[in-house]
Amino acid sequence: MVSITLDHVGVTLGRHAVVHDVSAAFAPGTLTGIVGPNGAGKSTLARAMLALVPATGTVRVEGVDAAAMPRADLARRIAYVPQGQTLHWPLTVERLVGLGRLPHLAPMSRISGADTAAIERAMARADVLDLRDRIATELSGGERARVLFARALAVEAPALIADEPLASLDPGHQIDVMDMLRAEAAGGALVIAVLHDLTLAARYCDRLLLIDGGRIVADGTPAEVLTAERLRAVYGIDAAVETGGEWPTITLFGRAR
Amino acid sequence: MARRVLIALGALSGGAGLLWAASPAAPAKAPALPQRIVSINLCADQLVLALADHGQIAGLTKNATDIEMSGEAEKAHGIPLLSNSAEQILAIEPDLIVGMPASRSAALRALPEQSYPLLDLDTANTLDEIYASIRKTAVAVGHPARGDALIARMQGELAGLSKPGKGRVAAYYQRRGYMTGTGTLIDELMTRVGLVNLAGKLGKPPLSQLSLEEMVAARPDYLIVESATDKVTDQGSEMLHHPALKDIPRISVPQAWTVCGSPAYTQAARSMAAQIAKLDGGGA
Amino acid sequence: MSRLALPRWSLIAALAALTLAAATASLLFGAVDLSVARLIAAATGDGDKVASVILFDLRLPRTLLALAVGAMLGLAGAALQGYLRNPLAEPSVLGTSNAAALGGVAAIYFGLAEIHPVVLPLLATGGALVSLALLFVLAGKAESPLTLILAGIAVGTLAVAGTSLALNLSPNPFAAMEIMTWLLGSLENRSFDHVWIALPCIAIGTAMLLWNGRALDALTLGEDAAQALGTDLRRTRLRLLVGTAIGVGGAVAVAGAIGFVGLIVPHLIRPLTDRSPSAILLPSAIGGAALLTLADLGVRIIPTTNELKLGVVTAFLGVPVFLVHLMRERRIW
Q: Could you check whether the bond before residue A103 is cis, i.e. omega within 30 degrees of 0?
């Protein structure tokens, strides 16, 4: 069972302190959304959890300091879907998804039967089996998002961090991706997603972390976190929040006066 | 229209007049015993150093003291070395300029109003041509007797020379695989010691390039190389040390003795003959 | 990946066969016409002296160097392209070959190479290392291929100027005439001495570069994702830098700065693979060996007064490839 704990984590990029003194604990089986305005430090926080940026404080994965852990070990525990749909070479979908097995391959070994099976499972879960022979760089935005997701699923890590997985996707595909994240969490994974869309965050996440100016402003269920006052304070918007249904619905009116 | 033609013609004739005025004045006559002799060519340096008094010489080329290239290098110490500069010549006010040839020198063309006494020498490719140059130079510098004495000495040194080559084939191999052909001084030296020039056998021009493969296939009996290339200092000389050539016996002669038709000719001939004899005596 | 296992090995086998054919031809042809019978006799030990010397002292080292240098340049191109995520990257375009040439020139013409034979490849490697470090500082993180190429041009031009200066300053009056050989590359008149200088460097460089296959594949997804997949980017960069510098340094020390091999070969090989960076590495090495050996054969067969420089042939082949890529520059690959 994996767990991620943040202990007074801070990140300074250049001369800016982008993340200040963030402490939080994440448990498996939950989908946590990290939301907040632009430049709040959400992506940086996600990258700090993967030891991709130097940070003060400690990030513990399964109780072990992530910065001290060998990269391959960390890679087997947390799968990462970075921002943007970076793809430098025109690999086939199957080959691309296969890259997710890299943390499991011993230095000079070839892909094994177990690896192939994991790749098949990942492609099935992300619903890209029919795309397996297509060239990944020729796919549409929505297809590419699913393929990159499959790549992360192929790692079969107990935790998954996705940074703005919904960027430039149409509403239908956004729902597809959120469904996949939800399914993973339901399956027992520890899922963290940096999101911009408050509606989808409210609908799908078990827990929200609202970040502003590099600090946690609120931490709780969507209903607890997303109040009209908070939205005004953090985003500078005028909105109404309905908490009657299964999840809060947000109606935006405009900029706060 | 007519006016324009007239103006054009006027400009043209004016230009022509300027050009005519710019052509060098006819050279003056040299004094019987020149006291400020300037040599503007390395080979001319050799002759002037060999025949004139030290005090008569006012300028030599910058290679004159380089032992690699100048046979009379020791005699050249203490004499100003000139680059190809018209200013320097002007400052010296020479009473004899020796060149190969002197009359077409670029430095002199920059001084068209001056008329210095000039001595034009021809490139010497045979021994007789060397003797002719010696005589001409000796007369010009005011010591005709020395010229005759030098020639007599050279003839004496060459008289007793054997021909140890015995008709064997040699190739004069330079940096980068350049090979000297027939009609050259090197070629005459080879004949004098009894060698046959490979370039002649292969029908090559006075200067050609022969690749290592071709040299190996040609199997000359000797390779003649410049002594400066005995040391590897660049890729050109590195080539001459290629293992493929290791089985061909070598004769090494300083370039200073062969690049110019000069009194050093006899030293070159004797050195070559001695080296051939040594290689013969030393073993197969 | 298991589906492509067979085609991958058949690609390598085909390239190996091509290379073998090229090497054989390289031994059979040269300035002097030697019949096959004579050459075979020489190879088996009872040939005539001329054929033996030509075969073993001249053609054999030349062929071995063409194979080794070609392999190193092809591999360096493939590895640099994979790491920099840019299909135009390769040692000569990035100025590394010219910088190595500068090191080599400094070693020979200032007499340093006489101290010990290892000084020559050492200085060439040093030149390559400095240029690569400079390049990484200037444009290592640039997303645009243009920035990288421009930085490479800057570094390369500086190195060429430095080389010309060094040759002109050298106390050896004949040094300046050898610029062409250094800046265009040539395998003329090479001997086994050169083979022993270059081969260890190329072996080390090849090993260090081939080791990076996985890291290069992971970089397909960008630096962050690659690190999150367990790649140690710092170590990868170091291996790449040092491996390229040593291998290209050794190659240039004996053959001059031959350009474009690392550009042409991966470009030709990529469509025959699954396009992942790791799949191109070994085939590019073998393909590079074949290409350079054939180019070297060409300069020996084409009848010219002076032997053509190798770099001329590779440039004629390489510039069209460069232009094709440039015209496609809007696509990431």
A: no
Residue B175 within any structural domain of the chain: yes
For residue C163, tell me if it sits in a domain. yes
Q: Do A137 and C217 touch (CB under 8 A)?
A: no
Q: Among A59-68, B270-279, C30-39, C62-71, which is the least confidently predicted range? A: C30-39
A69/C contact by beta carbon, under 8 A: no
Asked if the Cβ–Cβ distance from A151 to C221 is below 8 Å, we say yes
Q: Among B122, B157, B192, give the residue marking a domain's end.
A: B157
Whether B93 and B113 share a structural domain: yes
In the predicted model, what is the mean pLDDT of residues B26-35? 79
Beta bridge partners of A17: A12
Asked whether the beta carbons of residue C58 and residue B212 sit closer than 8 angstroms, the reply is: yes
Give the domain extent around C258: 60-327
Domain range enclosing B128 = 37-157
Domain ranges of chain A: 4-227
Domain at C107, CATH number: 1.10.3470.10
* Cβ neighbours for C223, distance < 8 A, ≥ 6 positions apart: C233
Q: Using the beta-carbon criterion (under 8 Å), do B233 and C192 form an inter-chain contact?
A: no
Does B18 score more than 70 pLDDT?
no
- Residue A99 is nearest to which of C2, C218, C232, comparing CB atoms? C218
Residue B7, in any domain of the structure: no
For residue B219, what pLDDT is reported? Answer: 93
What pTM value is reported for the model? Answer: 0.86
Which of the given ranges, C174-178, C201-205, C261-265, has the highest pLDDT on average? C201-205
- Beta-carbon contacts of residue A196 (< 8 Å; ≥ 6 apart): A35, A164, A166, A167
Answer whether C33 touches A (CB < 8 Å). no
Residues of C in contact with A48 (CB under 8 A): none
d(CA A120, CA C330): 33
Q: Give the pLDDT score at C178.
A: 81
Q: Chains with 3 or more CB pairs closer than 8 angstroms to B? A: C
The span from the first CA to the last CA of chain B, in angstroms, equals 88
CA-based nearest residue to A49, from A14, A25, A85, A31: A25
ipTM: 0.92
Q: Is residue B61 part of a domain?
A: yes
Residue C286: inside a domain: yes
Contacts of B247 in chain C (CB under 8 A): 49, 53
Tell me, yes or no, whether B144 and B61 share the same domain.
yes
**C58·B233 Cβ contact <8 A:** no
Is pLDDT larger for residue B19 or for residue B46?
B46
Question: May I ask the CATH architecture of the domain A4-227?
Answer: 3-Layer(aba) Sandwich (3.40)
Residues B74 and B180 in one domain: no
Instruction: Check residues C323 and A97 and name the one with the higher pLDDT.
Output: A97
Q: Do B125 and B186 have their domain in common? A: no
Q: How far is C321 from chain A (nearest CA, A)?
A: 18
- % of chain B with per-residue pLDDT over 70: 91
**What's the number of domains chain C is made of?**
1
State the average pLDDT over residues B241-250.
94
Closest by alpha carbon to C276, among A60, B91, A136, B243? A136
- Hey, how many other C-beta atoms are within 10 angstroms of the C-beta on C262? 34
Q: Are residues B262 and B228 in the same domain?
A: yes
State the total domains in chain B: 2
Given CB atoms, is C79 within the 8 Å cutoff of chain A? no
Q: Which of C32, C181, C188 sits opposite B217 (nearest CB)?
A: C32
Nearest to C224 among A52, A76, A79 (CB): A52
Statement to judge: residues B139 and B62 lie in one domain: yes
B51 within some domain: yes
Mutation for B interface: C29, C32, C59, C108, most B CBs within 10 A: C32
CB contact under 8 A, C192 and B238: no
Q: What is the CATH number of the domain that holds B98?
A: 3.40.50.1980
CA distances from C22 to A38, A90, A214, B202 (A): 60, 32, 63, 31
pLDDT of residue C145: 67
Mean pLDDT for C95-124 is 89
N residues, chain B: 284
What residues contact residue A152 under an 8 Å CB cut-off, 6+ apart?
A: A79, A80, A81, A100, A160, A162
